[in-house]
Design a protein that fits this description.
By secondary structure, chain A is mainly β. Chain A is 0% helix and 57% strand. Chain B is mainly β. Chain B is globular and about 40 Å long. The chains are: A mainly beta, B mainly beta.
Amino acid sequence: KNQVEQSPQSLIILEGKNCTLQCNYTVSPFSNLRWYKQDTGRGPVSLTIMTFSENTKSNGRYTATLDADTKQSSLHITASQLSDSASYICVVSATGGTSYGKLTFGQGTILTVHP
Amino acid sequence: GAVVSQHPSWVICKSGTSVKIECRSLDFQATTMFWYRQFPKQSLMLMATSNEGSKATYEQGVEKDKFLINHASLTLSTLTVTSAHPEDSSFYICSARLSGNSQYFGPGTRLTVL
């Protein structure tokens, strides 16, 4: 069964600090992995997307890593801002067969940045 | 590019009435759109896959007669919640597939059934 697990469930940090969110997956066959930011009451917005051959992808203060061998990914946020407070969701896409195009969602990590 | 809109952004209705939610891909054509439901503090759950010009494919446990999906054009899919009840209150999100496995999400529709 395809699964995506994220940790921690929630995280509180002070403004300006860095943090790292984790994602482990068992989706097969693997197509790509995306990190999304979802503000409360809004739809998810894509931060990064990585395919099998990519190890790192950056988008401003967001840097995602992918280890396809261990099936782990991380999202590192640098110099956090109050506006970073949101839910961060790891989403893995399968390719081929009956799973084609279907997304497997992690439960999300709720990040709260305090001043 | 790749913008998906939803309308309305929020709706309140009485129990027993029907509500229609629209999902539009604004700057691209999408043969496939997806409908998700999200309860508070939970992740998105796929309800159905909507294919232009054909019947939607529903996930296990989702009542197709209650959640009517129509994908009449390459830029519009609609979800109609029929005979809505308070337990249908949720955040409904659509996404549109641009190419391959790339999906772009709409901003969501908050449905509250009284």
